[in-house]
UniProtKB/TrEMBL annotation:
This is Transcriptional regulator, XRE family. Keywords: DNA-binding. It holds the Pfam family HTH_3. Residues 7-61 form the HTH cro/C1-type domain. It comes from Koribacter versatilis (strain Ellin345). GO terms for cellular component: cytosol. The keyword Transport does not apply. GO terms for molecular function: DNA binding; DNA-binding transcription factor activity.
């Protein structure tokens, strides 16, 4: 999953420019470009701002299943998973890009290990 590519696709589907997102979020256009091109990984707080600016649910960015109309649908998420994601969101806001990448790499490795029955 490339979150920047997902953001760009939703933005274009909504007919919005990076400038439109900048006006609604206060995030600089150059930052949005870096996110969309995969040079920067945004925090969950930043993703929430972007989702709100585009009038989509934050969870929509993480859904892999396309809806009937070709857009992505919001996945059904348990309360336990929502609590976990909110904790990650709360603690990740103070992390720099390098630390966010490290956390993401660790989570990917743990998920891969869990998928292999380890």
């Amino acid at each position: 999953m490339n979150i920047g590519e997902t953001i760009r696709n939703f933005r274009l589907q909504k007919g919005m420019s990076q400038g439109d997102i900048e006006k609604r979020t206060g995030l600089l256009r150059c930052y949005l470009s870096r996110v969309e091109n995969g040079h920067t990984i945004p925090s969950l707080d930043t993703l929430a701002k972007i989702a709100s600016a585009m009038d989509v649910a934050l969870a929509t960015f993480f859904s892999d299943a396309p809806a009937d109309n070709g857009t992505k649908s919001s996945p059904q998420v348990s309360d336990e998973v929502l609590r976990f994601l909110n904790q990650i969101r709360r603690y990740s806001s103070g992390l720099n890009d390098s630390d966010r990448r490290l956390v993401l790499t660790m989570v990917k490795k743990m998920a891969a290990s869990a998928g292999n029955g380890k």
